[in-house]
UniProtKB/TrEMBL annotation:
The keyword Transmembrane helix applies. Residues 1-21 form the signal peptide. This is Sugar transporter SWEET1. Keywords: Cell membrane, Golgi apparatus, Membrane, Repeat, Signal, Sugar transport, Transmembrane, Transmembrane helix, Transport. Belongs to the SWEET sugar transporter family. It comes from the Eukaryota. It is found in: Cell membrane; Golgi apparatus membrane. Gene3D superfamilies: 1.20.1280.290. It is a multi-pass membrane protein. It comes from Lonchura striata (white-rumped munia). The chain crosses the membrane at residues 65-85, 92-114, 120-142, 154-174, 180-198. One of its GO terms (cellular component) is plasma membrane.
Amino acid sequence: MVVSVLAGVCLAATLAMFATGLSDLRQMLATKSVENIQFLPFLTTDANNLSWLGYGCLKGDGTVITVNAIGAALQTLYILVYLYYSPVKRPVLLQVLLLLAVVVTGCGYFSILVDTGTRLTHLGLFCSVFTISMYLSPLADLAKVVRSKSTRCLSFPLTVTTLVASSSWTLYGLQLHDPYITVPNVPGIVTSLVRFWLFRRYRPEQGKPYSPLPA
């Protein structure tokens, strides 16, 4: 019963976190421009979703599969729209091709070179490292906030959804005794709490609102 409730919370919170990127999508469609839109978060989140999708399929976890299938579809949509409106398409296309190469190489490695008995462990470790690096990536923005004394580069809705999502996934992993789900989500809790502290210390009114895509 507890696992089912946590699975539902994980699903809702994570989809809400991914949906914060819809504001960027609306902006691109409305302005027909990618100005002030960050592309790298689209790409890294898509790679993360695809990795966890593979982990969910290998483990047979419906919650992990559903969340990351929807997440991968959303990030792919963001990437395609960004590519369409980008005035300089070659660098963007090269990054997309690099992502595809990494995904294909990873699939080949885990499917062919890793034996069945350790495949889930290897893939779980890979996904964990990827997720931890994504949760730690906003630290550069946090340093920028402290220097500028402004939270204009932070998204409050994204901070809330990240905290709820990372907390629920941590509890979900604990219930399943799966360290590859539990451990990588702890940094998400820590960085979210730090961002809440920054919002309290440097009021949003000191800078204009900004809503980047989750990374």
